[in-house]
Amino acid sequence: MSVFSPDRLARKSANHPWLTLGIWLIVIVGALGAASQMKFTPGFDVRGSDSAKADDILENKILGKSPATETIVVQSDSKTVDDPEFQAFVNSLVSQVRGLSKTVGGVTSYYELGDESLVSKDRRTTILPVSLTSTVVDAPKEVVPLLDTIKDQSGSGFTVLTAGDGSIWHDQQEQYQKDMEAGESIGIPVALVILVIVFGAVVAAGVPIILALLGILVSVGITAMLSRILGIDSITINMISMIGLAVGIDYTLFIVERFREERLHGLAKVDAVVAAGGTASRAVLFSGITVIIALAGLVIVPTAIMGSLAIGAITVVIAAVAVALTLLPAVLSLLGDRINWLTIPGRKEKLQTNDDTGFFGKTTKVVMAHPWISAGLSVALLVAMAIPYFTINIGSTGLSSAPQGLDSVKAFNILDKEFSAGRIDPVDVVVDGNANSVDVSLAVSRLREAIADDPSFAEMGTLQVSKNGEAGYVEIYLNGDSTSPEAMDALRRLRSDYVPAAFKNVSTNVYAGGGTAGAVDYVDTMNSYLPIVIGFVLTLSFILLLMVFRSIVIPLKAIVMNLLSVGAAYGLVVLVFQHGVGASLLGFQQSDQIEAWLPVFLFAVLFGLSMDYHVFLLSRIQETFIRTGDNTYAVSHGLRSTAHIITGAAAIMMVVFAGFAMGEMVPLQQMGFGLAAAVFLDATVVRTVLVPASMELLGSRNWYLPSWLNWLPRISVEGHATPAAHHEGAGAFELAPGTAGGQ
What we know:
Largest sheet: 5 strands, antiparallel
Structural class: alpha+beta
Distance between the termini: 23 Å
Number of helices: 24
Low-confidence stretches: 720-743
């Protein structure tokens, strides 16, 4: 007997429900306390990249820990900076900002410096450079007093806005939070309706949602504790909420359904909980492992954002599995048959039948009667959907695609029009070496001349040298959004052409840092690591499925099918967002670029989630095949017996993901739509058509295992099937050596 098994855990939880609830209460209270200590860190830096090296030199050799900066924009429709009223307003604003000494390190203006670069050509706009006392990491929180001061100026006859390290990140965090709340307000009610339809009872429908929310809370608490030592991006919370609702509801759904089924079979309450623990809970545990394996692929990528997303996703899956395996059995033990309270009128629970009536029974019959046509058409459809992926333009959506109603975006747009938006985030050309040398000075002059005729570059500052002369840097301002395709192309030209030519034969190392450089390194890293992540996930998944199903065909086929559905989801994301097909109809914002982290993240998550349903379905088919020896009957029975519950679970995932896709942040729209599309395709085209068609074509060869692999350990997902010679009505069949279940 194994030391750990879901059925033994279910029995202990069911026999001691109040103790189990007490332990979970302590965990939840602790999670609540920890959640308030969450610390967000912008997460797009790439370890070991040129931009990271430049930033390290700036911090360690030249500037120290650089304070965050803001650029306040003051604009008038009728007055110019030469009007006394304009000057009086700006001087008053400067005085108020300087009064925020705890969070503002310094502020200056055109009137103090006489610098015409701080005034627009029409002289109706001026900018106030501001330095905060905090670093970039803490800027979103520390910038709040400045934002409040600026908002107090509204209605004064002037437009006053700010854009910078703190305000941009602060506004985006708030918008992500609004999108998350909007997604939950859509996803949870609709998921409840679907669960009521699936279960036919309100209480049974409410339990999965409540437990999923508790799992999310626990995950947020764990992530908050990790955020004190690891960088956690703010989008991680959105991802925790989205994945947590999807898997949390689904996992408890499977177990509650199995418990009710066992009660219909006449088992006592605790025995029914244990039976569900030995079958559905075991499947949930294995499903969680497969999802975690897929998500672990994200850790390979040397970027903070991928590590952040992986932490959030893995912790919420672990929390969902823990809730399903321990807290849920205790709840079921306390509720018993009260789980069926508030039943829909006219709805009566009944055992699954083995006939071919109903949609899935009839569909399976048609598909398996014409397997070649069904398989060919479904594969052709998925491949056609994947084709747009080959036109993908990977990048970073940046502020140009952010909601235009955000104050920081309004400020950015004014800066872009009247000055250079590149002032917010200049490129830092960092010289690591003797920056006081004549060679370096001449090289900087050559660089200035080289970029002068390139319209992508706005202006270039003067060389700033550290006190000991061991390093220096010069700022270069780009035109437009610092993460636009044009800015990123300009940065690549700077690195590949201008800097090497200017610093030729100069004995120093030169790196390009700053936001645009970081974005370029981030995009290039995502592109190069995508095949590595795919290879890692596919290899581990193949090994795990090989051991579970003791077949070399099943894992290969499962991987191919999942790649088809993921590829189709990729293609649809590109078609809708990049090419704009149906974007306005669906309420999405078209973007010239697909977020660079999206393909890597979508692959890991989608592969894990689609394998989730695949395993539930195949385990039931395998169980029936071992018992009957009839492949056709096993496939048909497996599909019919799991159709209603898997369809309900898939529908819930789709609704949750679609709810988050309805937000205003483009990265969240792309992520939610991609996930929803993939789950839909997996639950319809793949599971309903491609799986039965391919299994009918291969017959007993589905379960082929070479004799030299018989040493593999046996892992049962839903307990052990009861072997029998054949099913009543099915032809006699003797399992051959080399097939799952054979000798």
